[in-house]
Design goal:
This protein is mainly α. It has eight helices and no strands. The chain is globular.
Length: about 180
Amino acid sequence: MDGVARAVPDDQNPRRSSRGRMPSGQPNPVDVHVGGRVRLRRTLLGLSQEKLGEAIGLTFQQVQKYERGANRIGASRLWDLSRVLEVPVSYFFEEMGDNIASLSPRHVTSDVAEPEAQEGDPMTKRETLELVRAYYKIGEPAVRKRIYELAKTLALVSEGALPEPSASLPQRKAAE
């Protein structure tokens, strides 16, 4: 050797993926999860990507990349986001499944299978975000609680855990 350190390209180094990405080049699922939590909280607070970007000194395009997981969020930026979005840093890692956590960059090697996309996650749907926003716009706490209880009951009926509401009501006789 001539004493000069030479970088090994990421595609030839089995211990590392390129800049935290999966071997396929896709964003790491941990980064996608964290970005999704940023988007969820931003939307729940009613902030646009532009407003969030202004608050932390970024363009809305950079916020978009963070939310998609295309760009990784550094520790200091995550701290800033937690302050602006009024949540602890741990919030961004909540509800992360073991299958995603196991794909953090320290666990990734070229022979690790990628998880299937979690398109069915209701927390990533606009409908869910709009529902939560509308719910919290209801000013009367007692009304909110009744709606919450109604939704829980309907979900249990839908799952078959409770009988259909019409089955438990007495049948009215037709007017004669």
